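Example record for the data management plan.
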Amino acid sequence: MSTIQELFIKGRAFLKDKPHPHIEAKLLLFKCASISEEQFYSSPDLELSSAEERRFFRLISKRLSGFPIPYLTGNKEFWSISFKVSPAVMIPRPETELLVEKALELAPREEVTIVDIGTGCGNIAISLAKELPKAKIVATDISQRALKLASLNASRQNISNINFVQGSLFSPLKKLRLRGKCDLIVANPPYVSRKEWTRLPQEVKEYEPMRALVSGKTGLEVIRKLAQEASYYLKPGGYLLFEIGYGQKDGVKSLLASNPCWKKIEFFKDLSGNWRVALGKAMPLGKER
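Corresponding structural encoding:
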């Protein structure tokens, strides 16, 4: 049997060509041996069982084949919250926290109605619910597996003010009769074009759900629908806030500007200096498309 420290050193050596071998070896060790970070540092000479050692090297082998770390550990941190993830959902990215930041700046602190389109693991909706406990939040997704995972994440955080509803884009809002009743609609939509998809890292293409990433030929297909239909469900003066991809600012601005329902259009940069989030402020009720 090997100690925690011995296995960590071996795992780090196997993962030396990965971007963060130290962190990855540690996370996989936490997973296979069910140890905490405190135990990792306080008990480096603790011996693990043969079964735990075998599990560790199986995870190392999967990681070397390209399997993403969050899918191996089953968790990904976002907004200082640990979210359960699986290949049924896209892995939350840190740059999406900008979307949450801007949503919180716009949302009234009293009762507010927020819709999260394409919720995935629920990271955006749950982050907002934690900060806005009086909010009424509707989180939609076309995938029942994603909604099941999002509901589990909400339960783990003792969140009860989110209604998870299955359906594509705005179809659930029609059933819920939310015409003109929403203060804020947020989304991290698919915005990768088919051509861009071919150039993404292999571990993204092979393991993450293509439907959650790829919009179509141009990458703007889903965003176009957001720009056309969101104002129908917003109150006058309500906001549409969504993530965009690299180099998409001009195209997105054109889509929003072509719809007279949007009286204010803004864009925000992420910490890398890329235009990451688009905003549209709604005029009085838009037309349903």
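Summary line stored alongside the record: Residues 75 and 170 are 29 Å apart (CA to CA).
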